[in-house]
Amino acid sequence: MDTLQFGVFLSPRAADLGQLREHVQVAEAEGFDFVSIQDHPYVPDFLDTFALIGTLIGQTSRLRFMTDVATLPLRPAQMLAKTSASLDVLSGGRFELGLGAGRAWDQIAGLGGPRRSPREAVAAVSEAIDVLHALWLPGRTVTLPGQYYPVTAATGPAPAHRIGIWLGAVGPAMLDLTGSKADGWIAPLATGYETKPAAQDRIDSAARAAGRDPASIHRVIQLVGTVTGTPHTTSAPRSGPGAQPIRTTPDIWAKIIAEFAADQRFDTVNLVLEQETSEQLQLFAAEVIPLARAATSAASVG
Prior knowledge:
globular
């Protein structure tokens, strides 16, 4: 198994911009692999996620950035391809695209976006992935007929590296799409822990049916919690809401993460702090990440 990757999930609140910048600098200095930022353009006090990432890219040199997840109905695939490639070029290959089909349809419609049925939403994501991959190929002029994102004689720019498309998938059709076309799965916080093993199996089956190696698809577990001196949480949650907090000591945090990696094949942890503080970021980076990586390596060898 490759080395576990660790990210931190941050909210793009305009009022917290100074704190947000501080936390990104801490994540950069303390060894996190990436920062993920949610994308809900209809939330009044949220900054635009892509503009924010573009700013933060210029203030860092190592961290990768990922949308978690981009609201496709408000970001047409043709322009999403250009924006994503531009961020990747500007950052020297440090941008990844988390992509979602949309869910807050009243709010999306309030900004002029479409209302889509579940079937339409999945079909739009599938078509968008084809458009993104085509437009990211260097030196290619693209014409693609489509129901949602038709393209005629369009070109790049090409990104600096192969941008990963990571889907925030919940339902069976989106999980199938993850297995057949996507680079990774971001397990949504809205899904219960008891649903994740079956979701993993469905992604694997869809990957095999498409002639892909399931191991090539990255899996992100999003864990909410706090590093504490007292083990309020003593074992990995196996049922209940995905957003239930884990509040425990560094060694138990490491054990929980290693179990998710070994038992459910998650190779990436996205930390969602109950309280976004620099102290918690530093504590997690200094005490949890090394223990978790060591425990995962030992489990894979054993």
